[in-house]
Amino acid sequence: MAHHRSAKKRIRQTEKRTIVNRSRMSRIKTFVRKVEDALAQGDYDTARSAFVAAEPELRRGVTKGVLQLNTASRRISRLSRRVKALVPAAATV
Length: 93
What we know:
Blueprint: H1 5-41, H2 44-64, H3 69-85
Helix pairs in contact: 1-2, 2-3
């Protein structure tokens, strides 16, 4: 247990930040899960629209400090590649 006032304050701040960061990560995971669900169903249009919504959330996670830049970039890249692989044959012409 902390004994100094500054250490006690840091504990309080950490608890608040933890709640906020968990909420942000949960939101990001929800957006990514929507893309993955659409990919699993093979629905290109839904996957594409879910990806368009998920990409800014991942980038926002970087600016808020809950994700590393390379981690977010990697996740975006992999999701994008999977969405593009679903493109219907008629749309590639």
